[in-house]
Structures are given as C-alpha cells and as structure tokens.
Amino acid sequence: MADYSLGYGGVGSGMDITGMVEQLVAADRKPADNRLNRIESQAKFKLSAIGTVSSAFSTLDTALKALKSATAFDVRTVKSATDTVAAATVSSGTPNGTYNVEVVELATANKWITNTPVAAAQTFGAGQLTLTVGGESLAIDIAEGATLQDVRSAINDAARSKGVQASVLTSNDGQYLSVSSDKTGAANGITLAFTSGGSDLQSLVGSLQERVPAADAVVRIDGLTVTASGNKITEAVPGLTLDLKAKGTSTVTVSTDTAAASKLIQDVVNAYNTAIGAINASTKYNAETDEPSALTGDAQMRSASGQLRSMMGNLLGDLAAQGLDAKTLGLQTKGYPSSDGTLVFDSSKFTAALAADPQKISTAFTGETGFAGTLQKAVGSYIGTDGAFTLRTNGLNAQIKDVTAQRAALDARMEAVGNRYKAQFVAMDALVGQMSSTSNYLAQQLASLSSQTG
Fold it and tell me: How many CB atoms lie under 10 A from the CB of residue 94?
C-alpha cells in the first residue's frame, strides 16, 4: 500500500490529510477490488472442482488401459497337487491345462571322497594332479611336505572358479579328502587323477570314490521325456517352471487367474463410479440452503456426464448382443430406485462366464475396439495435454494470473490517485493557511482601529 503520510497534519486547516487521502483511495479502490476478488474466487472454486473431476477421469483412464491390454486376461494361476515332488510357478500366457508330471531322476552334482583315512600329521611328497571339469583339464601342483589341508587348498586355488570345491572331512578314524562340483548335471562331472609324484600322493588320489554321480534331471510331462542339467525345468511348457524336489508324480494344473481378471473389471467399475460421483458432487444444488456447487449448471460437466452414461449404455447393449448380458456377465447400471448412472458388478457371475468362455470375454473387453478401448478413447479426450479438462484448467489459471496483473495495475493507478488527492489537500491546506493568516491580520487591524477611536 502506498504511503501518503506527510509527517504532520494540515498546518493551515488542522485536518488529517493522510487519513482522508487513505479513505478516499480505499473508497475508489473498493469496487475494483471486489470485482477482482470475485473473479479470482470463482476461478479458484471452479479450478478445484475441475481438478477433482479430472483426477477421477485419470484414474478411470488408467484402469481402462489395463483392461484394454491384449494380455489383460492372460494372467495364470498354477497348482501342483504334490509340492514335495514338483513345485510350479507360471507366467502370463501359459497354456491352460492339466499336466501329469513324473520326476524320474533329480539332477545331482558330482562328489568324490577318499575311503582311506589320513593322519593329521601326514605329509606328501611333491607331485602333480590333474583335475578334469566338464572336459577341461587343470594341472594342480603339490609342494614337498604338503599336508592334506595343503592339497585341499591347491585344488581350490586352481579349480574354485570352475565350480569345484575341495574340503577336508574329519571323522573318528582320521581325515578324508572331499572333492565336489557346485553344478549339477552330467556335463559337469569331475575327475581327479594322479599325474606325478610319490606313492603316498598316488594312494591318496587312488582312494577317491564317487559318492554322488553327476546326473541330469529326468522328468516325464504327459509321457514326454525331458532332461535338464538342473532341477528347474523351464522350457518344456511355455511359461511354466517346474522346481523338482523328489522322485514321484504330481498333477500340475494351469488355469486363468479369474480373481486377477475380476479385479480388472472391478477397478474400472470403481473408477467409473468415482468419475460419475465427482461430476455429480461438483454440479449439485443444495435446495435446503439455496447454495450451488462450483460447477452447478456447467455445460462441460453436463456434456461429460451425458457422454459417459450414453456410451456406457451402448457398450452394455453391445455386450448383451454378444450374449454377455447382466445376468451372464454380472455388469450393469444401478437400477431403480437408485438409478444414478453408476455401475454394479457381480464378480461371481463374471468369474463363471470367464471360466466358461475366456476367449469370448477377452475379445469383448480388450483391444482398441473392445469395451475398454472404446470407453478409454472418450475418457482420454478430457485429460492429457490437449484434453478438454486440461484446456479448461489452463484457461482458469490464466484468468487467475490476469487478476494478479490487474491488481498490480490497480495498485499503480491508486497510488497515482492518492498522490493527486494528497497534492490537492496540501494545496487546499496552504490556501486555508493563507486565508487564516489574512483573517488574523484583518482582525488585528480592526482591533487597532477600534482602540484608537475609543
């Protein structure tokens, strides 16, 4: 606010010039202030309401995009009748069906252990061993005076990177050398052979016995044999992973995840109802208090609500024409006496329909021309960069910005008005001061004349 203070009152008139100027400026400013406040308040009121509706439409758009996806109903669930034999996991798109699984052999990792104990204090002469891992040979040098622990370390230093580990096992009768592979499968077998050195080193290597062979997993799926180096079978059935646990049989059932599919529909229903509710709340009129809402009577909101309801009616009609009516599908608009345009959904009916004909349901709802794609195009026209609600929001923000600019211009104009009032009052005060001085002078002269004639 401009400062119109003189630092003193009217010298000639005794008037509060500063106070009078401020009151006059405030009186001049008030109509413009009221107009700008009204414009700003209404714009912000509408902006908040449109933001709520736009947010609801964005949520609906997201739900429709998920339902529109070609893989929306490809989510699968899997159950193995005997998890202790073969556990199962599944990904989207795996063929539905029941698979008879027989685990014939589990994949194992090769392990060798010496069968002759070695005293803790025993040492070996210098020599060389050859370790073969999956067809690759490695030379292992043993130093003079090596203990069994030193032999173990030499093997580990040379072969750890190849997935081979040696260890020393201790029992009541002495120590034993163990050499094993970290990798399962027949191709990952290992052998440790004596190459050169003394008889003591030769005897150590010669006493190695295979305790666990290197073997592939063997499983029969619906009578077809599948082998693998590991106990996870991933390529026999697309998207199905079998985790083999033990020899035996199990029945693995892959089916459409009806709960996940039902949730996609329920998400759309919830988002659609929220969008309709947001429009209703922003346009309602309270007859008891005679108070309108932010967008009561708003043409854009009426158009959006009308378009949604009309399109939903058409889409539900199209579904019914395909044999997917409310009784079959469980999806319909709320009926009398609460027919407010919102949807109701019976997930149990939908689940039964999906189980009966999953392809028909998928075709009806997914894709650009399906239920979800058609509705999503209409919803998308209101949001996004060029959406109707976005453009409306941009216009209201511009209006609020313009009010700020008008207030700045009003401040400058009122400052000029105040300075003009101030100059006028100062001039008037000076004139009153002159007149008062003249009056006092005349009064003194008249008093002097009166005393002389007396």
Answer: 21
Strand order in the sheet with 174-184: 164-171, 174-184, 109-114, 208-212
Q: Give tens-digit pLDDT for 74-96.
A: 889 999 999 999 999 998 888 88
- Alpha-carbon distance of 29 to 413, in angstroms, equals 9
In the chain, % of residues over pLDDT 70: 94
CB atoms within 10 A of CB 109: 20
pLDDT in tens, 318-362: 999 999 999 999 999 987 567 788 999 999 999 999 988 988 999
Architecture of the domain whose range is 109-212: 2-Layer Sandwich (3.30)
- Three-state SS across the chain? CCCCCCCCCCCCCCCCHHHHHHHHHHHHHHHHHHHHHHHHHHHHHHHHHHHHHHHHHHHHHHHHHHHHCCCCCCCEEEEECCCCCEEEEECCCCCCEEEEEEEEECCEEEEEEECCCECCCCCECCEEEEEEECCEEEEEEECCCECHHHHHHHHHHHHHHHCEEEEEEEECCEEEEEEEEEEECHHHCEEEEEEECCHHHHHHHHCEEEEECCECEEEEECCEEEEECCCEECCCCCCEEEEECCCEEEEEEEEECHHHHHHHHHHHHHHHHHHHHHHHHHHCEECCCCEECCCCCCHHHHHHHHHHHHHHHHHHHHHHHCCCCHHHHCEEECCCCCCCCCEEECHHHHHHHHHHCHHHHHHHHCCCCCHHHHHHHHHHCCCCCCCHHHHHHHHHHHHHHHHHHHHHHHHHHHHHHHHHHHHHHHHHHHHHHHHHHHHHHHHHHHHHHHHHHC
What residue has token string 């700003």? Answer: 40
Mean pLDDT, residues 181-200 taken together: 95
Mean pLDDT over 427-453 rounds to 73
Average pLDDT over residues 173-194: 95
**Domain coordinates in residue numbering, the chain:** 1-75+257-424, 76-106+217-256, 109-212
Q: What is the pTM of this model?
A: 0.69
Q: What is the mean pLDDT of residues 398-426?
A: 81
pLDDT tens-place string over residues 41-68? 788 888 888 999 999 999 999 999 999 9
